C-alpha cells in the first residue's frame, strides 16, 4: 500500500493538471512587420487574431525584445485627416470572431526598435490577453513598404 499510494497520488495530480491545461482559444496568424533600419524610431506589427472560444477576450498588451515598448494603436480618418491614437483598453476579440490588425487600421507600434529588422528575419513577440494569458508568436520581417505579407495567400 505504501508503494501504491505515491503512484496513485502522482497519477491523480497529473490527471488534474491535464484537465486544467487547455490550449488557448486564441489563434494568431499572418504575424508580420516591415524591415526598418537601426535608427528607426518605430516599427509596426500586424497580425490576425481568431477567438475559437465561447467567451470574449481582449488583447491588452504585447512585448518584444526587439523594441523598447509595444503599444496598441488605432489609425482612423477623422475630418479628412488620418490620425493615430493609442488604445489603452486594448482590442476586443469577440467569441467566434476574427480581428485583423493591419495597415491603415489597428496595429502594434513597436516603439524604439533595439536593432535593425532585416527582411527574412523572425521577431519574437509575446501577446497578453485578458483570458488566454500569454501567447507567443513570431513576426516575419517583410520588405519595407510591403502592404501585405508574402505568405498572406497561404
TrEMBL record:
Keyword annotations from UniProtKB, A to Z: Signal
Keyword Signal attached: yes
Reading the lineage from the top rank, the first entry is Bacteria
Pfam families associated with the record? PCuAC
Q: Which stretch is the leader sequence? A: 1-21
How is this protein named in the record?
A: Copper(I)-binding protein
**Organism annotation:** Belnapia rosea
